[in-house]
Write a structure and sequence with these properties.
The structure is a single chain. This protein is mainly α. It contains three helices and no strands. It is elongated, with a radius of gyration of 17 Å. The chain starts with a helix and ends with a helix.
């Protein structure tokens, strides 16, 4: 544990950021899994229904700088292509 006051604050902030980043990334993974599971079951309607929720999770992670905006765009594009391929 650091002795300097600013370092102590930095440790707290790092922990808070880490917690938020883990939450955001987990939310993205869960949303993607749901969409991919629907695709694996050839359930186009369910995949179309789950896609906006996945896009929202990805966009929010990009807005919070958890992932880069280009990575977010790439993830959204891949999911959309997969959903459109079974439709």
């Amino acid at each position: 544990m650091p002795n300097i006051k600013s370092s102590k604050k930095s440790v707290k902030l790092d922990a808070k950021r880490h917690e938020r980043n883990v939450f955001e990334k987990t939310r993205i993974k869960k949303a993607q899994k749901l969409v991919l599971a629907a695709i694996a079951n050839n359930d186009a309607a369910e995949a179309q229904k789950l896609l906006p929720a996945a896009h929202k999770a990805i966009d929010q992670a990009a807005a919070n700088n958890t992932i880069h905006k280009n990575a977010a765009a790439r993830k959204k594009s891949k999911l959309t292509l997969k959903v459109n391929s079974i439709s």
